[in-house]
């Protein structure tokens, strides 16, 4: 496979055209010899640590915008992060030279992540990753997604049924939490083939959040050894033991079951290694499933929570969206065909992912060193691809702080690397279409039933917990049933 023409190299959320736009926003590489990355201003020794601890997302974005065009070096005490600042540089790393930018998941940032995900598609690198991705890619094919849609619609309906009496009571709902419950219901049904009770969902959600938050925090403290019996370390070990126990037991049961089902577990149990023809080991399936669950529920839940929040802040968008949903669906349950006609609904999801990308920063390693736009990236550099900063760069976007789904009418003219909520290149998110389908479906079905309204006027602040972009406080919304 060549570096930039892989069949895996696609993302439905990204512009189809691959031509690079050259212009005032993309500074020409200097003709002179290489220079080192530009150092971001910071305190002696501590560098940017103090401001990163208060506001990592804003700090990184300010640095990226101040040094637009350069490759920047951001000091975090003992660590130096190298950050691209233009779409062209991001495309260089994601698409054109992706092999030079592995995750380096046996060490650095990814070491804590590997403790949850084991050897799965999200943690592997090089040929091991490629073989794994080839094995899994067909599982997320359009055909399999179409097969899952009916199941997805049923579980979304069931979840909204459970929400309706509470919404009708008139008290505001913590919409981010409701979306998380819903996303867990969808994933556990579509991946594991399991319908959870409210309590089971709550317990799994709490356990998953606990494990994930502990791990994300460790991403920036990856240099601390795991043997230190810190309370957070002991809690993480307990959480993982509990999760693994339940999951492996479920997997053994499913392996011995006679009739096949439509969920992702069935597809994984039936998958065969391309070379050996052998089925996957239970441990391997466990690693992939845990990866899908963690990579898939919180990200999609955040996207949905933020979407409803942004709709609450932008009533004219909400009205336009409701009008589309009412016209296209006309009271009917969505189908894959009808979903295709919900163009504005899709744009609302896309614009939400620009505004609040759930994975706002993506780490990589540059093992051998590289040169981009005349800046020399030293070997073994830790890279931070900051899609939030690019998504909010006023030099790239008109009114970047304004929520305007219509801007996606023009997305085919955007350069690669300008819009990357799902990453890009061969390692683009494998669940992008799944998540887009789910988000579009949930928004449409939710707005068929409810008219959401924010319970407060104050803006909700965001917080970067590791790579995740979360609301600082609950998003409280009144959800009046529509007659
Ligand atoms: C709004 C929802 C989602 C967002 C914003 C998102 C974001 C991302 C991003 C940015 C990456 C690239 C990471 C990198 O390059 O290091 C990624 C990879 C991945 N995502 Fe997603 N994701 C979402 C939903 C999902 C879902 C629903 C699933 C599975 C059911 C999923 C599974 C994965 C996996 C397995 C990878 C690793 C792919 C690889 O390295 O080959 N994601 N995701």
What does this protein look like?
The structure is a single chain. The chain has about 475 residues and is α+β, with helices and mostly antiparallel strands. The protein has helices at about 50-55, 55-65, 85-95, 110-115, 125-135, 140-170, 175-190, 200-220, 230-255, 265-270, 280-315, 315-330, 335-340, 345-355, 385-390, 430-450; strands spanning about 40, 70-75, 80-85, 175, 360-365, 370, 375, 380-385, 450-455, 460-465, 470, 475-480. It has 16 helices and 12 strands. The strands form 4 sheets. The chain has a 5-stranded mixed beta sheet with strand order 1-2-3-8-5. The structure holds protoporphyrin IX containing FE (HEM). The site of protoporphyrin IX containing FE (HEM) has 23 residues, from helix 11 and helix 16. Protoporphyrin IX containing FE binds near residues 292, 303, 422 and 434.
Strand order of the largest sheet: 1-2-3-8-5
**Largest sheet, strands/sense/barrel:** 5 strands, mixed
- Let me know the average pLDDT: 86
Domains (count): 1
What is the CATH fold-level name? Answer: Cytochrome p450
CATH architecture: Orthogonal Bundle
Helical coverage, percent range: 40-55%
Overall, the morphology is globular
β-strand number? 12
Rg, nearest Å: 22 Å
Content-based structural category: alpha+beta
Low-confidence stretches: 1-26
User: Which CATH first-tier class would you pick?
Assistant: Mainly Alpha
Bound molecules: protoporphyrin IX containing FE
CATH-wise, what's the superfamily? Cytochrome P450
Cα separation of the termini: 55 Å
**What is the helix tally?**
16
Reading the helices and strands in chain order gives EHHEEHHHHEHHHHHHHHEEEEHHEEEE
């Amino acid at each position: 496979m060549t570096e930039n023409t892989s069949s895996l190299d696609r993302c439905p959320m990204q512009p189809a055209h691959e031509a690079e736009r050259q212009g005032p926003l993309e500074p020409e590489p200097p003709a002179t010899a290489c220079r080192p990355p530009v150092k971001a201003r910071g305190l002696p020794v501590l560098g940017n640590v103090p401001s990163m601890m208060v506001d990592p997302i804003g700090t990184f974005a300010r640095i990226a915008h101040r040094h637009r065009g350069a490759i920047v070096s951001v000091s975090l005490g003992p660590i130096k992060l190298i950050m691209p600042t233009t779409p062209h540089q991001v495309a260089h790393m994601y698409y054109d030279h992706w092999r030079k930018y592995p995750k380096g998941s046996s060490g650095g940032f990814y070491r804590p992540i590997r403790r949850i995900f084991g050897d799965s598609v999200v943690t592997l690198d090089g040929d091991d990753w490629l073989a794994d991705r080839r094995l899994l890619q067909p599982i997320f094919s359009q055909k399999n997604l179409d097969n899952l849609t009916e199941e997805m619609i049923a579980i979304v309906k069931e979840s909204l049924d459970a929400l309706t009496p509470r919404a009708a009571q008139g008290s505001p709902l913590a919409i981010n939490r409701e979306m998380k419950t819903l996303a867990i219901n969808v994933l556990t049904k579509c991946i594991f083939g399991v319908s959870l009770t409210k309590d089971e969902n709550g317990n799994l959600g709490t356990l998953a959040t606990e494990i994930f938050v502990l791990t994300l925090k460790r991403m920036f403290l990856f240099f601390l050894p795991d043997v230190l019996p810190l309370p957070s370390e002991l809690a993480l070990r307990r959480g993982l033991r509990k999760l693994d126990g339940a999951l492996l037991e479920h997997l053994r049961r499913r392996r011995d079951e006679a009739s096949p089902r439509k969920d992702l577990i069935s597809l994984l149990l039936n998958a065969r290694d391309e070379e050996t023809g052998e089925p996957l080991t239970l441990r391997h399936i466990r690693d992939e499933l845990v990866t899908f669950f963690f990579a898939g529920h919180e990200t999609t839940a955040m996207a949905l929570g933020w979407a409803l929040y942004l709709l609450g802040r932008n009533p004219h968008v909400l009205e336009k969206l409701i009008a589309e949903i009412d016209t296209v669906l006309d009271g009917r349950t969505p189908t894959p065909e009808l979903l295709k006609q919900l163009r504005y609904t899709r744009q609302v999801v896309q614009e939400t992912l620009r505004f609040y990308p759930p994975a706002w920063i993506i780490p990589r390693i540059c093992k051998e060193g590289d040169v981009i736009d005349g800046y020399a990236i030293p070997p073994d550099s830790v890279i931070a691809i900051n899609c939030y900063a690019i998504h909010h760069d006023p030099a790239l976007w008109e009114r970047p702080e304004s929520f305007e789904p219509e801007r996606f009418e023009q997305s085919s003219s955007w350069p690669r690397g300008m819009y990357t909520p799902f990453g890009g290149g061969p390692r683009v998110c494998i669940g992008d279409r799944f998540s887009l389908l789910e988000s579009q479906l949930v928004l449409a079905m939710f707005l068929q039933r409810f008219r959401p309204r924010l319970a407060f006027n104050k803006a909700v602040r965001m917080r970067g917990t590791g790579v995740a972009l979360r609301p600082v406080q609950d998003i409280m919304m009144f959800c009046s049933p529509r007659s």
